[in-house]
Design brief:
single chain; about 100 residues; mainly alpha
């Protein structure tokens, strides 16, 4: 699901950007975003969500839901997804990020 949302999301973003700037579709950027989304889904989110299930149980309660939201959106995404993408060494950034 993460791979699809990354691919579709960047496709939509580039379509909207093209309307404003007239720039061509950047296939390298799309592949980079899609690859990063796939990596995040497989290597990061799967173990993280398994940990949350073990820690808070599979049953949906208000406490468990609040913990999931705080840990996922408040800590995991900014600290594990967003920040490392910006801190990647230059060669990796050249592959993943647009010029």
């Amino acid at each position: 699901m993460g791979t699809a949302s990354g691919a579709v999301g960047d496709g939509i973003a580039q379509t909207l950007e093209r309307r404003e700037s007239g720039a061509a579709f950047d296939a390298r950027r799309w592949v980079g975003v899609t690859t990063f989304s796939c990596f995040c889904s497989v290597a990061l989110y799967t173990p993280f969500y398994a940990f949350l299930d073990r820690r808070f149980g599979g049953e949906v309660t208000k406490k468990a839901l609040l913990a999931w939201v705080v840990l996922d959106d408040g800590l995991f995404v900014p600290g594990v997804e967003v920040l490392p993408l910006r801190l990647l060494p230059l060669p990796a950034r050249l592959l993943l990020l647009p010029d």
